[in-house]
Amino acid sequence: MKLPGRRLLAVAAAALLVATSLLVATLLTSPALPFLPLLPCLPAVTAPSGAGYEPSGLATLADAAVYYATTRTVPQQSRAEFALSLDVLRRRAPVRLLVFGLGHDSPLWHALNPGGATVFLEEDPEWYRVVRSQSPHLRAHLVRYRTRLDHADLLLGSYKQFPSCVPGTGAEPAVRANAACPLALHDLPPEVYENEWDVLMVDAPKGYFPSAPGRMAAIWTAAAMARARRGEGDTDVFLHDVDRRVERMYAEELLCDRFRVGGTGRLWHFRIPPVSRRGNTTTTAGGGEKPFC
Hints:
The chain is α/β, with parallel strands linked by helices. It contains nine helices and seven strands. The protein has helices at residues 5-29, 56-69, 79-92, 106-111, 125-134, 152-158, 190-193, 216-227, 245-255; strands at 96-100, 117-122, 140-142, 199-202, 235-240, 260-264, 267-272. It has a seven-stranded mixed sheet with strand order 3-2-1-4-5-7-6, sandwiched between helices. α8 packs parallel to α9. It is globular and about 70 Å long.
């Protein structure tokens, strides 16, 4: 027997109401079906094919992301330490970034300076070949050090006796060709001397066994370069492994506590103004004060 039209509509409406009530009750009581936020409309893609990675910085960041997503190696610095440096790079990039040392984090430093110039200095020939084979796009140089870690105390106590190692009246110690100063990296590639570096990261050379070069010369060179800056702005210098005695005492002597603006973990951050824009009240060679501070 066929139901009348109105009665059929009433039954259908009642069934729909019951089903809706059951669905709402289920959504409200079931933890497995939470309410999902509405997604915005899919953006239009109008750029020509292949143009997404045209800016070199984006392509470099993508390469670094893939590298760290597919490797089990752990960078030398912690997340908090990277964040400290990244704050400066975000503010200043593109910059000229000079990094003492090659490592698992080198592709990241290169990527975090889009549009800038990033140069690495490495003293270990075997490690240099390993990293360069894995990341041939990095601009890196193999360099030599004259120092030994077990001479660190002697060098710190005697460097003021070398006029070429300390600031003089109206003159700054040279780095290039300054073989007379035992702390000067005097024979680096020409491009290191021919450019002013906005940011320096000292995370090498090795400094954990007596015959290792130690970071004494790298710290002295970074300090001398920062003092001699002629361009605008200050020089941001980062020093890693300050939990070690030699790094800490050379930082206090040459990079200066009054220029330290931050730090986290084993990383210290110095912002060093050029000597042309600060009053230098320290003594010259042989004085008892800290000539670089």
